[in-house]
Amino acid sequence: MHRRPPRLFPPFLLLAVALLLTGCGVDGDQAALCRKLIPAFDSGPVTILDTAEMAGEEPALRLTYRADSGTHWIACRFGGRFFDSRRHELVAVATDRMGRLRPMQFTMLRIWAGLPAARLGLPPESGGPERGPQTDWAPLLFFLQQLINAATVACVYGLLALGYTLVYGILGQINLAMGELTMIGAMLTAMGAAALGMAGLGSLPLAVLGVFATVMAFTAVQGWTMDRLVFRRLRRTHNHTPLIAAVGLSIAYQEGMRLLHGARDWWPAQFLADRHELLSDGAFTVTALTSQAVILLMTGGLYALLWAIMQRTAYGRAHRACADDVGAAELVGVDVDRTVATTFAVGGGLAAAAGAVIALYYGGVNFYTGYLVGFKALAAAVVGGIGSVPGAMLGGALLGLVETFWSAYFAIAYKDIVAFGLLTLFLIYRPDGLMGRSRGRGD
């Protein structure tokens, strides 16, 4: 009789160990915020050499880095630690060449960085609003703030996961170059925003919308070209050649963008960065940016448009027919090549939308932006059920919630481990995802 081998390490035990491990080390979220300030003091590529905590009553860390001007350091002091609602509030900055920044210098740095006030606050000398004592409502308000923050992250993963799931639904194969289409969308959006700023049009919503539509159209053409030149020629290949070709395309896009535009980060000005206070108990205030509402509306509009296209148009019927049986669809007159090419174009446009959100809301885009984001969006598509359009959005929402709440309550340095650990668990215990269906492997 077959006996199941004993499980030495139950999943809940491994999760408990992971939770314990996150309590030590440098707060990665604070390190990332401090890293964003380096371009204000040194231009060109920067290599982080060391990140260390500093002694003192308030949490602080020092980043040692190498730039074209030599080896330097920047020190950032924050208002709280891992579980404190003020852990993202920067209260002081110092460098090896300027010492501690004076109040006016600190204020100018805040304006240059363009970061939300909740993450980069005014120094004590500037007369900012005093906080009251923490109340019993503060943990709940902090929780609500993380829900708002998670919504934006979920939009990025959901839009890109839609691109993955559309291609997989019709071909049964994963296009690993989809993340690079997000990178192209982010880079082009950053360049377009910079051009609008130079022309004095950066504050006009219609101008930004025009850049957004142009970037989506250009990247949709990139997706169509990708299928026409590469994947169509491999359509009848029943091995892993298409997957290898996708990896090659991904590397080619990365290196091409690096050679054309360099390795530096692009930091476009924030779009619609007006902050609105929603709830407050005197100690913690729940806020939201106008851009977050615009991103949610845009994502909802794109999803509704995609649903209408899939349900009400000839392309949607052709896509569903090819997803059910490509051979039978071809026999009844469906133009499979055109349907697949259109799917690549639609996926490319959605990937560009995700890249535009990254550029205008988060900033710091470069030739490597789409690599990790692409794999995370793929994880979201798998968790939701790859091949299912609603599942892609559900997976993006779940991954956004997991990442945001982990970063808020634990060390952000482990959030990628948690994200891909979640993917691994779903592949083991629910390989078809939450809303997926069983199908052939497609290879």
Structure, described:
With 443 residues, this protein is α+β, with helices and mostly antiparallel strands. Helix content is 57%, strand content 10%. The chain has 14 helices and seven strands. The chain has helices at residues 11-21, 28-35, 103-113, 138-171, 178-198, 205-231, 241-261, 290-312, 314-324, 326-331, 336-362, 369-384, 389-409, 415-429, and strands at 47-54, 60-67, 70-78, 90-95, 99-100, 275-280, 285-289. The strands form two sheets. Strands 1-2-3-4-5 form a five-stranded antiparallel sheet, covered by helices on one side. Strands 6-7 form a two-stranded antiparallel sheet. A hairpin with a 3-residue loop joins strand 4 (90-95) and strand 5. Mean pLDDT is 81; it is low at 1-24 and 116-131.
Strand-helix topology:
Blueprint (H helix, E strand, L loop, with lengths): L10 H11 L6 H8 L11 E8 L5 E8 L2 E9 L11 E6 L3 E2 L2 H11 L24 H34 L6 H21 L6 H27 L9 H21 L13 E6 L4 E5 H23 L1 H11 L1 H6 L4 H27 L6 H16 L4 H21 L5 H15 L14
Antiparallel strand pairs: 1-2, 2-3, 3-4, 4-5, 6-7
What is the CA-based Rg, rounded?
A: 23 Å
- What strand order characterises the main sheet? 1-2-3-4-5
Q: What's the mean pLDDT score?
A: 81
Strand content: 5-15%
Shape: globular
- Compressed to H and E, one letter per element, the order equals HHEEEEEHHHHHEEHHHHHHH
Helix count equals 14
The residue fraction in helices comes out at: 55-70%
Query: What oligomeric assembly is this protein in?
Result: single chain
E-strand count: 7
Going by helix content, strand content and strand pairing, the class is alpha+beta
> Which segments are poorly predicted (pLDDT under 50) over 5 or more consecutive residues?
1-24, 116-131
Terminal Cα span: 35 Å
The largest β sheet comes out as: 5 strands, antiparallel
